[in-house]
What does this fold into?
Amino acid sequence: MRILIKNCNLISMSEKRKKYEEAIDVLIDNGKIKKIDKNLNQQNCDKVIDATNKVVMPGLINTHTHIPMSIFRDTLDGYGLQEWLNDKIWPMEDKLNEGDIYYASLLSCIEMIKSGTTCFNDQYFMTDSIIKATLETGLRIHCTRTLMDINGDGEEKFKELEELINKYAKYNDNVKINVGIHSLYTCTKQCVEKAVELAKKYNLYIHMHFAENSKELEDIKELHNTNAPIDLLQEYFKDMDLVLAHCVKIKPEEMNKLKNLNLSVEHCPVSNLKLGCGIANIKDFIENGINVSIGTDGQGSGNNLDMFSSMAYTALLQKGINEDARLLPAYDVIKMATVNGAKALKMDDKIGSIEVGKQADLIVIDLETEMTEPINDIFSNIIYNVKANNVVTTIVNGRIVMEDREIKGINEKDIYKKCTSIIKRLA
Ligand SMILES: [Zn+2]
It folds into this structure.
């Protein structure tokens, strides 16, 4: 399939191009970006998209979520993290079946496509059903079978994960499996060591929650018999590629302990705020040369999968907590949600920016609206005023998965009904 996007305003996020270019055409051929130039010939194209007055930018990359948790939206109010998991979420999760996971995942895929996300990193279980839903909608997925063993049953989870790894080993770039450790407060030393072994065996990165709140650190101290949970990172994960969600409770003086790790931090501001965890000081990570990307977390704690909202929170919070309006310019925040996300997922040679040869994951945004006109600074406009519904068209791997806000091949209302029936049954 050959698609020509005509006359767009391009934010490519490529270091090789200007930050912003007007009246540009982007040619997509067989899933990849073939040409970027002015006035490209539209002959032999299967599809031409007129993007006059619209912005084209890379699809957003959500580096930490749990997409089947769409059905747990708005269940959190009044709970703390551990209470919410123990008393509410884990008992309900025990009742979920593959069909539930599939429909809940489809709902999330709809949400992501409509809010400009083209790739996401998921951590959950019944992963095959998550992948099935994702592939049907056309999105790109990184995922795992979450490992934990404090409630027993660790062996079974390892078996499931290894099966997944083998099943999708030779799959295309739309599905990538990683080793997901839930956290150090739910995994014993033996479980962590086994997970690291598995990651080494298949050369995969490790995706784990870490330092989300103070209680977690206390629990880690007890389970791993240590006074300094931060030291466990070096002890357990030396030389491993590590992708850590949250990192809220890492102190400035502990930053030097992170420097020698191959580490990416997945900042999830909305979830951290709602769970009353505190706010990670991203400034410290960036100053120490650590890659920081953005995640929404699942809808149970993060409300939604809207990366535009998470980008705005990221920028506003860092300015606020550091009392410095110059911190995190808008362009840098867009970079966190695109280029840095690709880096975290070890796919920066393939996605994260619009460049010839890269895979065509991009979105078209309409800025001719009451909240985005007039445009003084395009990057600030995107961070502070663009909302999910400004995204009109979403393309993943050269496939148009949404055009003019219509998702191809899915009856959205049917999915809403299915998800409502699931929560009725669980209740
Ligand atoms: Zn999470």
About this structure: Residues 256 and 288 are 8 Å apart (CA to CA). The mean pLDDT is 96. The chain is about 35% helix and 20% strand.
